[in-house]
Amino acid sequence: MKKGLLTHSLTHSLTHSLTHKELLVGDLEELWLIFQEDAELGKYLRFEIPRNFAELEALFFSWEKKNKNKQVVRWGIFYNGKLVGIVSLQNIIYQSGKRIKNVGELGFWVAKNFRKKGIAYYSAKKMVEHGFNKLKLHKIIASCVVDNIGSQKIVEKLGMRKVGLRKDHYFYLNRWWDMFTYEILEN
Ligand SMILES: CC(C)(COP(=O)(O)OP(=O)(O)OC[C@H]1O[C@@H](n2cnc3c(N)ncnc32)[C@H](O)[C@@H]1OP(=O)(O)O)[C@@H](O)C(=O)NCCC(=O)NCCS
Question: What does residue 141 show for φ and ψ, rounded to 5 degrees?
Fold first, then answer.
């Protein structure tokens, strides 16, 4: 089979297996299992992986509050009905004083047993389309740790432009981490 045809059929089956919807309290058990199975997951994420179920519930309700204030859109990524990750637009700002901003920050992660299938890319693409078409954002930004090649590949494949390098952006696990910043404008 030609590579193009193979890619097309993979894409087709992936989009049929993937659904995205707002996370509900009922999804927390599955989320907890993912966090327990992957001690490394927190390395490139912005939040601490909860140490117990009560912490997970507290994290979820803090997300809910931001959802209500329209500062965040956060979808569970479901592969054949199973929760396998999260994609989000965070820190959404429409206006700051007299300045129109219409900006949001893309984030995503996928559980380790479901990686390298295109799930993060297709989910991020769907969220970017939602950000521009439904939320009427003007700009979407993203930050990737310099060591995180996978996330850089995804945002570059989405057409995001690398705009800079933030040196020593945060201290975690006994070292400073550098981050690349990316952005894409509507149209
Ligand atoms: C980074 C991450 C989201 C990638 O998820 P994924 O579902 O495996 O990514 P995809 O399958 O959509 O991959 C898209 C492309 O990136 C490439 N890629 C993914 N992970 C990669 C890695 N670790 N190293 C090199 N390339 C990688 C894929 O090969 C694919 O390339 P292609 O389009 O040329 O075939 C996932 O590894 C993860 O959740 N990591 C931990 C959390 C994290 O880093 N989140 C991102 C924070 S910005």
Answer: -115, 160
Q: Tens of pLDDT along 170-183?
A: 999 899 999 999 99
Mutate to test the pocket of ligand 1, among 20, 78, 109, 116 (most ligand atoms within 8 A of CB): 116
Q: Are 128 and 122 in contact (CB under 8 A)?
A: no
Q: Cβ distance 20 to 55 under 8 Å?
A: no
Q: What is the pLDDT of residue 1?
A: 47
Q: What does the pLDDT average to over 29-45? A: 92
Note the pLDDT tens digit of each residue in 91-108.
Answer: 999 999 999 999 999 999
- Location of structure tokens 């193979």: 6
- What CATH number is given to the structural domain containing 106? 3.40.630.30
Ligand 1 centroid distance, CA of 96 (Å)? 34
Q: Is the CB of 10 under 6 A from ligand 1?
A: no
